[in-house]
Design goal:
about 60 residues, about 90% helix, elongated, structural constituent of chromatin
Amino acid sequence: MKDLVAKINTEFETFKTESESLTEKGVKAAGARARKSTLELEKLLKEFRKVSIEESKK
């Protein structure tokens, strides 16, 4: 579970960096990287939800 949370935090930092590059600096390629990051975050958050439910049943 700790590894999963670490992956989520890392991916969120990536999203934050790329979205700031897009909005503040106007780097269009950063928008694509930010969107890719959101897809990865979606997968990780779904996995977290699954693991969290399993842990609560123990």
